[in-house]
Design brief:
Blueprint lengths: L1 H29 L6 H15 L6 H22 L7 H24 L1
Length: 111
């Protein structure tokens, strides 16, 4: 159960970070309203707060979160950008998630 809670928290954190970066991208690259910076800033603040909710050392959280972020970004690429991920995108994600599993397993042993 703890694993699912951590995974869900990582995924929510990744979405908050991606939204916080995507909205300024829309403003700068797509000519959308500068008002998008307001929810972008709120989303990035939410991202930072969500990172503080993890019970382990910050550096380990950031390292493991990075792999989950990559997974959410690949799904974002597909669902939001409309670009189907390539086989190498999926392979790279798999390699990253193996790294996340190693980091998180080590966290249980070496707290």
């Amino acid at each position: 159960m703890e694993f699912l809670k951590t995974l869900g928290l990582f995924m929510a954190t990744a979405v908050a970070e991606i939204v916080g970066c995507y909205l300024p991208w829309l403003w700068l690259k797509e000519g959308r309203s500068a008002w998008l910076l307001v929810p972008a800033a709120a989303s990035l603040a939410l991202f930072a707060w969500l990172l503080t909710l993890h019970p382990t050392a910050a550096g380990r959280v950031y390292a493991a979160y990075g792999g989950v972020y990559i997974g959410v970004a690949i799904v974002w690429l597909w669902l939001v950008d409309g670009v189907r991920p390539s086989p190498t995108d999926w392979l790279g994600l798999a390699v990253c998630l193996v790294g996340v599993a190693i980091i998180m397993a080590g966290a249980r042993v070496g707290r």
